[in-house]
Structure formats: structure tokens, C-alpha cells
Amino acid sequence: MMKISKYKNFYLALLVIVAFAIIRCSKDNFPVDEDGLLITDRTSAYVGSFDLWDPTHQTVVVGTPVVDTVAQTIDLQVRFGTDLTRLWPRFSLITDAKLEPKVTGFVDFSDLTNPRQWTVISGNRQVRKVYTVNVTVQQP
User: Taking phi first (over 0 means left), then psi (-120 to 50 degrees means alpha), and beta for anything else, what does residue 16 get?
Assistant: First the structure.
């Protein structure tokens, strides 16, 4: 019993410090978007790299995808025989940017005449750049 009262002031001070830290770091002080992501002052919105994975979490890309940040295109070739209906796109984005629509599962890339598109949104949520993913299949 004596030890608890001996450290009572220490624990009270620690509680006040933690409460102050929680209040200072509340959502009101750091703006977040509808996804709970921090909104920053960054205006860049681009894809750094891209990959496509099959259901076994292996890449199906032949070579290195070409990411053109000026034309806002991603050109890549996949292995012959790849099931284009169940591929998982893997984007690497500039810091604080986000992707729309979100990648939440496998994506169907089988319609090669109508490439898939994603929008990269900057950290300040003001700049939006639409990227087109052009997939070709390796010849047998």
C-alpha cells in the first residue's frame, strides 16, 4: 500500500502527459480524408512502379513495366497463358498520394481493347491524374 502512494504523483503526472499528447494529436489538428489518410501539402500525383500478380502472389509481368508519368500510361507484357481475369495490380505511388478506385481484390484485365484506368490523387487531394494500364500478352 505504501508503494502505491509513493508513486501516486508520478502516475498522475504520467496520466496528464498522455492525455495532453492525445489531445494534441487529435484528428482536428491533422486533417484526414474520408479514408482516414493524412492530407498533406504535397501536389505530386504519379505512379512510381507497377506490377501484376496472379492468385499465387507471383508476378506475371515479362520484363519491366514502362511507367510514363507524362503520358500517364503504364505499358506491360504478361506471360503467355496468364489468366487475365484474376490479376492483382500492385501500384507504388509518390508519398501521400492515393489511388482511386482502391485495389481491394483481383481485377479483370481480359478486355485488351479497353485498358483499365486508375486515378492517382495527390497528398493535398487537389491534383488528379488518370493512368491507363495497357496490357499485352507475350507471343507463344
Answer: alpha
Q: What is the pLDDT along the chain (140 residues), one digit of tens a residue?
A: 555 566 777 777 777 777 666 656 554 578 999 999 999 999 999 999 999 999 999 999 999 999 999 999 999 999 999 999 999 999 999 999 999 999 999 999 999 999 999 999 999 999 999 999 999 999 99
- The residue ranges of every structural domain in the chain are 47-137
Residues 47-137, CATH architecture: Sandwich (2.60)
Residue 77 phi, psi dihedral angles, 5° rounding: -120, 140
C-alpha cell, 92: 507504388
